[in-house]
Batch of 2 targets.
Target 1
Amino acid sequence: MTRDNEQTRQHQTTFTRREFLKGVGVGGGALVLFGQFGIHSAAWALSGEPTLKMVVVDYNKCTGCRTCEAACSSRNRPAAVAGKALPGLGNPYFANIKVHNFNPDVDVPNVCAMCADTPCAKACPVEPDAKTGRRAFYRDDVTHTMHNDANRCIGCGSCAKACAAQRTGVIRPNPETGKPERMCTLCGGDPQCAKRCPFGALSYVEVRRDRKFYGLGPEKIAAELARNWYGTATLGGVK
Amino acid sequence: MSGKPGYHGRILEIDLTSGKSRTVAVPPEDLDKFVGGQGLGMKLLWDRLKKPGVDALSPENPLMFIPGPFSGLPVPSSSRTCVVTKSPITAPLKSDHRHASTVTYSNMGGFFGPEIRFAGYDGLVVTGKARELSYIVIDNDKVTIRDARKFKGMRTDAFDKAFLEELGDRNYKTVYIGPAGENLVPYSSIIHTAGRAAGRGGSGCVMGSKNLKAIAVKGSGQPGVADHERFLAALEKARRALYGTTYAKSWAEQGTARAIVGNSNAGTESVRNYREGTFTEADKIGGDAARRDVWVRDFACYCCPLACKKSGVTKGKYGGVVHDGPEYETGVMLGSNLMISDMPGLLRAIYNIDDLGLDQISTGNVIGFLMEAYEKGMIDRKFLDGIDLTWGSVDATLAMIEKIAAKEGVGALAAQGVANLSRHIGQGSEKFAIHVKGLELAAHNIQGNQPRALSYVTASRGACHMSGDDIAMQNRRAMLDSTGMCFFPTFEPALEEPMLELLSAITGHEYDKAEFEKAGERIFNLEKMFNYREGFRRGDDKLPDRFFEDAFTIGAKKGAVLDRKKFQDMLTTYYQDRGWDPTTTKPGEAKLKELGLEFV
């Protein structure tokens, strides 16, 4: 039974990769979603449940221009100018979305997949708060965005390691404090990456809350895309 | 932020002889007057080379990578880096200085320029010469020079991958040379992302002369701007001017390749070594054919909404490589100009040239010249090391490309460019050796296009099709290539106002159209003074006889040929309008003073 399940899952994963990497795909681990349910439109809501929305990537449309990084940074890293908080100048270093460029030409925007089972939060070793039940690294149950309580965070990097090992690897420990960064905030319901993408490669769509993930980092996605587009799996850069 | 807004106010200087690096402050008035990119590069070159005749391949010649005030900010299409140095290719007819040559600049898209600014610099200046083949790694303030001997001879596509593996961090943005640059082929390029190039003018050769294989940069900073709110508002307008427009979509659809058929139809394409302006088989290598048979995906440079770069793969004898192209210049110089209409063969030639680190334009031009000399019986198969270099032959072209990059046999001669080749071959071959000042012409033919002929002969780096067809255009482009913005979006009239607004908001210097052109004029005149000091005179602003003698025999401009008198009259008017002496082409005192160039 277990074995059967495993085979089914593998089949679904393969199926999904083929289907999605040719057409519409979704950010990181959420890739499996549509294939599993056999639905190829990019949006739906489950009746009776409040909708959950997230950022979804169409790899066929992404040109690797990184405007999403600048737009994300501008919103999530505001600037203090003469006492006013204004959108920042868009330094991509502070963006929560990161476009990975490969040779041959493949670009993979990587953004928090808001995994339903939150391996990142589960890896947090900080004792859950008695009142909220939250560890230092936790999920917002309404938006499903991931957050870090910097006051309680010990900077151990466990969340980032779990994300890198099991999912997209988007979480980056701050080089100085070790505290996690790059969790998507959804920009308060108006994701700037999707809004500013000149090519319509990013969209903000409704998804199921109980969706399953199989964790694909940008390297694996890029290898699949290169196979599909160019018939090659030899990708340069860091493995 | 200190000093001039919009800038870090400092460049990074790396001396490969001593292995030491330091940051050097740039005077705010230099940033204000010369802006960045091509302009700031020219000013730095002027300051560093205090006398004419410095050997371009000597350690003294600085190799500079200069972004502009737009670089590192999310201004649409502001991805460009200008590589500025003294040319290893050009030469005046006569000069008192043995190594006299022009300035050269080559403008490259991608991600390198913005990353230089993220790392905290307004430019990189490399001087000296490393003892062994080396590479430079810049991580914000940390600069290291490392041994690159294990990469010796490595082609650029393989190196692009191997280098990132060695660095262990895909956030680095890299530039590098191929075997051609290591072998000091004068028209070697510098490659970025395995497909983008600072191609023209020999910057890859200068990099090779410094024993420098590659540079890697990453950073986490960003320069500030003079007026934050104004910047944000203008950015909004600039995006609106381009996003989703028919104009932007047209670039995404075919990039520059659209012109392969378009210019052939118009009779302005370089065909059969510039003998004709129309290629009857252009449709086989044009944008429609490429979109149908080759291209899989569109790619953009940093924050660019145009996505003019295309990538694809072909099958068969010449297939199996993933690369971009054809673009207009690559497709015409290796296609129409050599009468090659086999798309996979053309793409293999383009790939190999980038892979070896050669300039696509000069390489295509040189091979076209040799094909014609061979056809005319001026050289034989023995001269060509047995290569049957006939029009349209892909195999012969591929063989010649390898020889040039390796400087092997006939390649050693061909590597010296058409000016030197024709001198060697003689027999009147200089009539169809298509260069100005030693730099080969590009994919725009001119028998029926006198304004473009002006661009070629008066450009500061030798035959340059991008310089501008009249004075105002030349000034605007010299300035544009100093800002970090690409030329391609600027055909969209709606972008002009927000672009000027952005530049003003960033630098705190108010730019309107006139002020923008004035800055460009200053830059162009300083380049001219540099070239003048080296010994370039009016006689060097010269075209080969072909353009006055060989009228087109086919196409929309059939019968077109330039008229010597009209051409000279046009030049005289040009120098006068520029405020230059029409006999010597020296910029007049009044003009220099007006432009704030008294120091020359």
Target 2
Amino acid sequence: MAEYINIALPKGRLGEKAYDIFESIGYGCPSIREQNRKLIFENEENGVRYFWVKPSDVAVYVERGAADVGIVGKDILLEQGSDVYELLDLGIGKCRMAVAGLKGTRVHSDHTLRVATKFPNIAREYFRRQSQEIEIIKLHGSIEIAPILNMSDVIVDIVETGTTLKENNMEPLEDIVQISARLIANKAGYKFKSRQIKEMCEKIAALREGKE
Amino acid sequence: MMKQEGFLKKGEQTVFLLRSLFEQYGYRKFKMSKFEEYDFYADNRSFLSAENILTFNGLKGRLLALKPDVTLSIVKNTKGNRECPERVYYTENVYRAEKGDGEYREMMQVGLEYIGDVDDYAVSEIILLAKKSLDTISARSVLDISHMGFVSGLMEAAGISPSKQGRILACMGEKNPHGIRQLCREAGVSEEMTERIAQTAELGGSLEEMLPKAKALCCNEKMEQAVAELEKLLACLKACVYDQGVNLDFSVVNDMDYYNGIIFQGFVDGIPKKILFGGRYDKLLEKFGKDAGAMGFAVAMDLLERYGETEKTYDVDALLLYDDTTDTIAKMRAVQMLQNMGLSVAAQKKDDGSITYKQLCRLNERGVEVIG
């Protein structure tokens, strides 16, 4: 019997979109569509096993080999600096990482910039390259409130449409990096399930090209 | 007789096997102290993949460091030169803080270094030993080989300045073609060269199949030389019938300031991270002002800790229960008898669940009785 490919999917809309891609290229697993609380689904016929994990944990499962491949946002990869192969840009879940603040905020001034963010590593790296001294305020959600309450000068966060920012009288000030979902693979798994993983990549790449 | 594999852990077994393998090829054991002066590591910080060094004060206020690496100390002390090489191996603990751990850990490394004139023979010997080392751990292993000359030749041909190389090399390490394309676009690299770099990163497969592809990607003398060196290596490995599981993969990258020539890393099925890593580091010897080349590798033994634990393990084969009425001599004899049957034994008064066993025995006036 062929070995299973273990695939870590991020819970939520991105994971569902990613699963649609896998299904359309022949890695379907019908039981995953059933409404239940199971976390692991396998299809012996296609040799795939899926599991749903918290989006920010996908790279951890892959790096430690519990999953051979996984779907993860570039934001999380950049933040965690995981030691994995980043094989494909899936072109879904597109958004951007940006510096944002109340309208008219000046990013570069003569005092230390207070930055509220869920992504301290990305923020630190970005401002380091600009030689801007900063103070990081690590938050876990509702980042937009920080500048309104004058707890921070700016935020570093994901911007999709910009609606949340607008509604809170804020605007994107500087773009840091474009974000989209990536297919990542464990480095050792890629050696020993090389044929299956390469085949999977080629099929996804072909599907993407067909769409473009 | 108890069988060796019965009580040796996988890591301990592997240490024995590797030592005898290395000694077979004339490598001598190198023993070093647990620490060095801090400045020694600080001066060579970028050679160490670990960023943090565990320091403490010596008796006279000198700043000392628990060793994060063994290679540096070997290079500092070596007498190897181009005329007469020095071959050493080591089994040492190193102290590092891995990313995400949040604390220093003691990790065992077994490795070897060849210091002298690194000729084609030496390269083949070390690659052969690296592959054989992986084979002592698992029947399914892969040794990925890359060549710094090929990669730096490619960067030169593409006109990428050293300051921009770092991020492109990081993308090569991730086999990340979209990342490479984006960075090359930003750096103004021509489309043709960009594709060459992306293809180089994606190469991966047996040395024999991939070398012609690498050859087709060459665009200067430096790259051609690298391929020629790899071709010689392949011929040697084939002659020893040892080319299976030796792959060409340019996603193996390392610091260009220290490494030159062939670099490699090894994986075994069932361990999620690279377990073996090494390469040629003539430039480090240069920094120490020594007239010699050098090449070596290390095996990260800490990764073996959980490897191969398929069946349930027991603390002892037999737990022997006795009570206060039994004669001490009888207890000794009973334990000895069970040991002579090849079993490991723990004798105590009660089974309180703190020790796991295959068999539970009781000692009474009739002798040893198996009760569960």
